[in-house]
Amino acid sequence: MTSLSVIIPLFNKENDIVDTLTSVYNQTFDDFEIIIVNDGSTDSSIKKIKTISDPRIQLFSKKNEGVSIARNFGVEKASSNYVVFLDADDYWHPNHLENIFLLISKFPDNLWFASAYEKQRATNLITPMGSPIFKKGKNWSGEIDDFFRNSFIDCLAWTSSVCMKKVFFKSLNGFNALITHTEDIDLWIRAALKSPLVFSNKITARHNLNASNRSSKKQLQERKYMDFDKFIGEENKNSSLKKYIDLNRYSLAIIFKLYGEIDTFKKLISKVEVNNLNKKQQFLLKQNKFMLRFMFSFQKLLEKMGIRLSSF
Q: What CA–CA distance (Å, rounded) separates 303 from 299?
C-alpha cells in the first residue's frame, strides 16, 4: 500500500494539467499514487495526460457532475489511508508531500493536515497566505488551537494543500455533492468542528488564481452555494466561527452585488454582524455595482503591475 493517494479532479485544464503533474513528479517524497478523475472534459486534457507514462497514474473518466463528486469519487478509488488533494491548475513545491508526510509521522493520532501556501495573482505577483499563525515562525508546525480565528484573512485549509485521513474524510461524508461553489469552505468548517487541524508554516503549495476561469453572471446564477445558516447553532456558541462565516458571507455578497444580484446580496448581508468587518469592508458594502466594478478592475490592473491591494 502506498503512503499517500493524490486526488486530482480534472475538467478542461489542457493548458495546466501537464505543469501540475510535473510538480507532482518533482516531489522529494515519492511513495504515492495519482488518481485523476476526468469529470467530462471536452478539451485535450486527456490526450495530454496519455502522453505521460507512469504506473502511479490511475485515470478514471465519468460524466460531468462537478468537482465535489469528482473528488469524492477519487477518494473511493484511493488505496492509501491518507488522501491529498490537488486541483488540475495548481502547483506543489518539491517538498510538499515530504512535509505532509512529516506532519502525519509527528502527529499520527490526528485526522487532517495542511501546509501553508502562496497565491499566484498575476504573472509577476505571488503573495503568501495571510494568518496570525505565522507569528510562531516559518518552521513551526503543530495543532491549531482555534482554526477559525487563524483563518480570518486566508483560510488555513485550502484544497491543494490539505491531507485527510481517508476514514475521517468519509466520516464527514466528503464534499457536499449538492454544492458546486464554496464546497471547500463547507468541508473545512465541518472538519474543524470535529477535529483540530495540524498545520505547517512552511509554504509548499501555490494556488494559481491567474489560471482560474472568469465567472459570468450566468455561471454565478447556476452555481449552488453552501448554506451558511446551517451552522447558526454553532455560530451562536463560537464567536470565532461567527466571524469566519460572516467574512465568507461578506465575500460572497460582494460578488453577487458586483453582478447586480441585489436580493441575494441583501439576504447574505442581513446575517452579518457588521462589527466583524473592518472599515474597508464596511466601505465596500456601501458601494454600488458600478463603483465595485471599477475598483475591482483597478485592483486587477495593479496586480498585473505586481502591486497587491486588499480589503485587509
A: 6
Q: What is the pTM of this model?
A: 0.93
Three-state secondary structure call for residue 137: coil
**4 in Cβ contact with 97 (< 8 Å):** yes
The listed CATH number (3.40.50.720, 3.90.550.10, 2.60.40.730, 3.30.300.10) that belongs to domain 4-211 = 3.90.550.10
Three-state DSSP at 107 gives coil
What pLDDT, in 10s, does the model give residues 191-228? Answer: 999 999 999 999 999 999 875 444 556 677 678 899 99
Distance between CA atoms of 121 and 288, rounded to whole angstroms? 25
* Contact by Cβ (8 Å): 97, 7: no
Q: What one-character DSSP code corresponds to residue 3?
A: S
**Dihedral in degrees, nearest 10, Cα atoms 252, 64, 4, 52:** -120
Q: Which residue has the cell 447586480?
A: 260
